Amino acid sequence: LCSGILDQFDFQIIDMPDRLYERSVAPWNYVVKMDVNRIPQVIHEAHCTSSHNCEKVKDSASSLESIPLSITIPVLKKKDKCASYSVEQETIRIACICATARQQYHICQG
């Protein structure tokens, strides 16, 4: 039962409507994250295609950067070499968003 729920969750992430991951101003692609000792064994994780600037946003007054958006999901991890599993939390990137760049603050010494 748990395995089926986790597999369905992963499928919902990559089956986003109308290929949103390509149309976003902070586009991303999915990379397979494989672990044979985890259920689900395959998780699709988002990787931003542009690390520092957002595409298609040229008339913005402030500097924008592409930031990965992450969530924590439950997974089943195999314990040692036996057939028992434990529920663990794993953080995965599910998308990328456009955000204003972090400000660099300098301390002036006089």
TrEMBL record:
Localization annotation? Secreted
Q: Which Pfam families match?
A: IL17
GO terms for cellular component: extracellular region
User: TM spans, by residue?
Assistant: none
Gene3D superfamilies recorded for this chain?
Cystine-knot cytokines
- Write down the InterPro entries for this protein, in alphabetical order: Cystine-knot_cytokine, IL-17_fam
Q: Which UniProt keywords apply?
A: Secreted, Signal
Can you provide one Gene Ontology molecular function annotated for this UniProt record? cytokine activity
What is the similarity comment for this entry?
Answer: Belongs to the IL-17 family.
Q: What is this protein called?
A: Uncharacterized protein
